[in-house]
Amino acid sequence: MSRLTVILTHAVARVAAITFRKPADDSSLPISGIGRTEAMAYRDARGQSMTDPDWSEVECRLRRSYRSLKAAVADG
User: Fold this and answer.
1) Which of 17, 27, 30, 48 has its C-alpha lying 20 to 30 A from 69's C-alpha?
2) d(CA 39, CA 16)
């Protein structure tokens, strides 16, 4: 994982913690952050050459990420 990916993952997790009033150190939140960050990196790596199957892959990654976020928010 690149340094930028790590930074973005932590930023996404922090925003989720604030949004859903979870502790900032909640270990379940970065999991969803990783999924979102990986989806962004996938999209960014392909740039203007994104195809329909690429967009489907981004959608799958985001759906997994949001399922993780939903589970994290439901806990506690």
Assistant:
1) 48
2) 17
The total domain count for the chain is 1
- Residue range 12-71, pLDDT digits in tens: 999 999 999 998 788 888 888 889 999 999 999 999 999 999 999 999 999 999 999 999
Cβ contact 22:44 at 8 Å: no
Expressed as residue numbers, the domain containing 65 is: 3-74
Q: Provide the CB-side half-sphere exposure for 15 (13 A, CA).
A: 8
Q: Which of helix, strand or coil describes residue 43?
A: helix
- Say if pTM beats, i.e. exceeds, 0.85: no
pLDDT given for residue 26 in this prediction: 86
